[in-house]
Every structure is written in C-alpha cells, then in structure tokens.
Amino acid sequence: MKKVILIFMFFVVIVVGLIVYDQEGAYSTSHQFNKVIRYPTTRIKKYCINSYTFNYIKNHDKQELKNITDNQGGGDVFYYVATYINKKIGIYGKINESGFHLLMPSYKVKKIIIYK
What we know:
Helices cover about 45% and strands about 25% of the residues. By secondary structure, the protein is of the alpha+beta class. The chain has one domain (about 1-115). β2 (about 75-85) and β3 form a beta hairpin. The mean pLDDT is about 80.
C-alpha cells in the first residue's frame, strides 16, 4: 500500500512540475513585456519591429497582455502571440537553457510586433 501511495505522489509531483514548467515561459514573457512598455522611449524603440508597434505601445502603456498562447517557437527561440487591448501582438525572444537554466530556462524578449 505504501508503494502505491509513493508512486501516486511521484506522478502528482511530475504532473505539477510539467504544468509549472510549461507556464513559466508565458508568465516570464508577459512580465518582461510589461516592464519593456514602461521603459524610456529610446529603449522601447529597440524592441519594436516597426513604428506602428512603437506608437501603439507608447500610447497604450498602461495596459497588460491577455490571452497569451503557448510557445510557438522551437529550440532556443520562443514566439508568443497575445492580445494587447484589441490587437494581436507577437513577442519574439531567446531561451537560455545552459547551466542552472536547464531546469528553469530564462526567457529574454528581443522583438515585439503588433499585427494590424
């Protein structure tokens, strides 16, 4: 009986770990995006792919991302699509899985685009 309980607890821990691991990327990306839109103007321009994206973010900097998809990238590249107010937004970046980050990778936002 103890073995059955131990095996059950092991699977519960594994399932919870996989759920947290899967959602960490979306949470980290959303958090970084919310920091980026509050940066000074010159730093925001480095992240925006075009002037339309820059102007839209600058004029709506008090909003937050909603409806974030799962990671659409592959390998060490990530791509998330989310809703920002009433527009679809794409967030591109790199994943660092070296060293300590093998268990909990770090996500770094590189580019942002708002789809017209």
